[in-house]
Amino acid sequence: MADVQYASAEGFVQFEPTERDANEQQVVDYTIKTPGTDGILIRVTVWPELQGAEIEKGDWIAVDGKLNIGSFTDRSGNPRQSVQISATSLAVVKAVPRKDRQVVNPGSSQNAQDKLF
Predict the structure, then answer these.
(1) 36-59 pLDDT, tens digit each
(2) Going by DSSP bridges, is the β-strand pair 6-13/25-33 parallel, antiparallel, or unpaired?
């Protein structure tokens, strides 16, 4: 029997969640992108016992759980890896809602330039 590996990950939820059945239970899958310019996408599966928090696209989540790394071939024929964590603990930071703001353009008047010097 293979050793079970556990991992932690954190990142922003990239897409709307998807629901599916697994082991006769309704689970919710989220895709997060880890921080950094080379951030990877990780699928996080949340089981019913952790579904108390409302998680939406744009929220920041941190997760611990069982790690599963798979491989597949993308549409271009390139080998790729998939990373999935089955959550055993989860923390959520809600995204701050963006408000529209008025953009003031002072134009190119002499008064605007006078204020710079």
Answers:
(1) 878 789 999 999 999 888 899 999
(2) antiparallel
